[in-house]
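User: My collaborator and I are trying to settle a disagreement about how two of our proteins should look. Neither of us wants to argue from intuition anymore, so we agreed to look at predicted structures for both before our next call. Could you fold the first one, then the second, and keep them clearly separated?

Assistant: That sounds like a sensible way to settle it. I'll keep them separate. The first protein:
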Amino acid sequence: MRYRELGRTGLTVSEIGYGAWGLGQGAWVGADDDSGVRALHRALELGVNFIDTARGYDRSERVVGRALKEFPGGGDGVYVATKAGPRVPVPLESSGLDVTETFPGWHLRESVETSLRELDRDHVDLLQLHTWEDEWTGRGDLLETVDALKQEGKIRFFGISVKDHQPDNVLNVLRTGVLDTVQVIYNIFEQAPSDTLLPACEEYGVGVIGRVVLDEGALTGSVRSGVTFPEGDWRNWYFREDRPAQVEKRVDALLVDLGIPVEELPSTALRFALAGPAVSTVIVGMRSLTNVERNAAVAEELPLSPEQLGLLARHRWQKNFYS
């Protein structure tokens, strides 16, 4: 495993991080606590030392906490990030809500304390907001609460997970210097963060956590016309109607352009995201031992060449399957 600095935090994190949404057993069907613990243990054995979870991921924090408690050393040296969701629902479009409604200080504190109980830990290394609108910058008692939680030793660093496909919706608060990290969708199709956000993070020393780097499975080559998912799995909605056919066409063109077999696509997608400026780690959902080992093996591969990155730049695709 290779490691990188997480912005200016002083933390050194694995290039491949563990995205723990799928361990929650809510939106992603087919996991259970025991298999989740086994997958996370294997990731830690292979050198993964950064785990990303959230209050909104059903049982995820509890499974992560159990896995760390049962791992040799109690997960010493493993960094845990979680997210606090807003007090009221926030849509993808501009909500018109005020930060005093979405993230009042008392709500943020309550969320952190609940996360600590679920994780069975006395602190989290990184607290992130699970959504953000840049109009909220400088308002409410949010940052005062963040500072207080740091002083109490309950959180170490603070960041924001940016709204889906809205990478510029964090630039104002980023430039105030209060953020340690930004989490953003960044993959071969979704390249918009490289326009402004990633260079700004590099300039301000803000660590970037790349998410959805495999585009919910689209960039593994497994999403094609006629694909099916378990009943109740949220991917039935994400890849609804003709979307699998759209993905298949785009992926086939990408493979032809690069001259690679489909088996090399996941590795290529991970290495693409890791080539982004200021990217410290990419978090990947890995519920099976096979996927854990496949993704961790990227550390043994060479970075993509400038020529390969140039080819992939042509496969930028402005889509938003979350709407």
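The second protein, kept apart from the first:
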Amino acid sequence: MDLDVFVTAHRAEWDRLDHLLHRGRRLTGAEADELVALYQRTATHLSLIQSTAPDPALTTRLTQLVARARATVTGARRATWRDAARFLTAGFPAAVYRSRHWWIPTAILSTLLAALIGWWIGAHPEVQSAIAAPDELRRMTRPGGEYETYYSSHPAASFAAQVWTNNAQAAAMCLVLGAFLCLPVIWVLFVNVLNLGVGVGLMSSAGRLDIFLGLVLPHGLLELTAVFVAAGTGLRLGWTLIDPGPFSRRTAMAQQGRAALGMAIGLALVLFVSGLIEGFVTPSGLPTWARIAIGVAAEVAFLAYVYILGGRAVRSGQTGDVEAADRSAELPVAA
């Protein structure tokens, strides 16, 4: 495409659209119809230029023009509490439910790998000695050692905030880095699994695995589930880049990326709950069975939330993507 010829042929339309936008609400009925038609044509022009002859200056001008026209045509809309309620009762659980075929296998494989690493470390003293010196291992695993005091070494509120921040960052990394062909997600997930497996192996070798699980399970069930959901979603996003399915790669990545962004917000709330449990329940003086029961109850509540509300939302047509009115216009794709 000859860009100069294209600009000469359509500049008058863009200038006319800009003029109508500056008039705002003082448009006649015919001018309003003209504005809609010019908006649609300009959006098509922008797509053609981006795909065939990208020019930074022209692309910037038309992008701004299309954005202004879209806001005028569709009307500016502010987020409301109703939007937040819709997100929590339909959008987020629907997105988690739809990605279950990714995060459930991720959870199963990760748990098996953590158990395998724990068995390998616990059954092989030479591996334990490669991790740390015998005196250091005893300091970590003895009664009142580092594994036990870790959860009570800081004030509960500040510890919960720190844990929430760290876990939210890990989940966000999984969601964002999925676009890089899945590899960074696998690495982040492996680091978390390795840390869990090392703890299982060292404490089991000291005959104190029950103590370790009593400390990890209250918050770990919900926390790890959130990490697995994030990792599974990140892997799905990376696979979309490889195989976008019936959509163009750009459209498919936009859909999955918007859903992943929403899931990052939802998972931050889930991890906030697990952080509260880790900060206030795990180091508490409650009996082990009571602490684990609280963790199991939180995990069951989350899964019920996903499968009941999420399943219902998906069956009603929800995908976890933003509302259609908030999406960018998309050109048809030939089959």
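Some points you might bring to the call about the second protein. Residues 324-335 have pLDDT under 50 and may be disordered. The longest helix spans residues 209-242.
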